[in-house]
Specification:
Layout lengths: L8 E5 L4 H10 L5 E5 L17 E4 L7 H9 L4 E4 L9 H6 L4 E2 L6 H16 L2 H9 L17 E5 L3 H12 L3 E5 L14 H7 L2 E4 L13 H6 L4 E5 L8 H9 L3 E6 L21 H7 L4 E3 L8 H21 L7
This protein binds nicotinamide-adenine-dinucleotide.
Amino acid sequence: MGINEKQKIKIAMFDTKKNDVDYFTAANRDNKYDISFFEEKLNKNTVHLTTDHDVVCVFTNDTVDKEVIDALAKKDIKFIALRCAGYNNVDLAAAAHDKIPVANVPKYSPYSVAEHAMAMLLTSVRRIHKAYNRTKEFNFDIDDLVGFELHGKTIGVIGTGMIGRRFINICKGFGMKVIAYDKFPIEKSRVDYVSKEELFRESDIISIHCPLTNLTKHIINRNSISKMKKGVIIINTSRGGLIDSDALLDGLMSKKIGAACLDVYEDESDIFFRDLSNHIMRDDVLARLLSMPNVIITSHQAFLTDEALKNIADTTLKNIGEFFLTGFCKNEL
Ligand code: NAD
């Protein structure tokens, strides 16, 4: 691969936070890799930082489009390592054209995301977010904190992959009726598959666990919302683009949607992972969503557990090592 065994593989890692430095430094215990941790996101303006590196390591909100990939090819970048599962931000066709293999971390801990989805749902239906703020202020009033039980409710799960299946098991543990839609249903499984339309019509709660693709973009839109039950709760821990945010906002305003639990947001890339507490929020839709008592937003942190971070760092470096040793990586996309 143009690197002899004694040379360290140089990795340019983008959009890094303290967690990345801590966990990747620990995973690089034998010092095999020379890692540059850049806080900047990868895009056409920062691609120059990859000069003299062998590998680019990116996360969910880096821009890895054709323009960036062409620039990476000119800089002789040999491998693009995603340190996440989703790869909707990477132009795979452009990477293939420029012969830069791309690999992801397909499973690091589906439990992290599935448990976060349930944590958000419980927070919402038991009004924990409101109670937490009240008791912190020595306000022990319980008015307007009436919730409802999950037991017996119908939950519709879109996408029954690794995360969706874990989430289904958790929901079953709560005594919920689970129905699911998947474009590629698992044969001979115990999952109760229904059509998308039936899922929209029958669900008290809908949780999205499919990838963002051309087919799934805005799978939650004005039309699908119109088919849903009044008061439906929507959970999205997958990708922001799966929901048309304007339609969601209108659904919440009209009370057709009872609550939303969002770990991802359509236009999150310049907002999430940053402390903007001293800035004016320019995104009116997000500001409006955040102002609502029945909307809970976390900043793309469903994956953020010790177990997942260890797995991500170990697998990402393993992907890179495997490729440079053998010219092949089993997690190549
Ligand atoms: P997976 O590939 O195991 O499962 C995805 C499922 O979606 C598959 O069963 C697939 O058949 C289904 N699917 C594909 N196209 C579909 C369509 N058009 N309609 C309905 N279903 C469709 O993936 P996973 O590991 O379960 O992850 C699911 C998603 O979760 C990822 O794509 C990623 O975007 C997101 N994710 C988010 C976080 C976070 O921190 N918030 C972390 C990891 C993953």
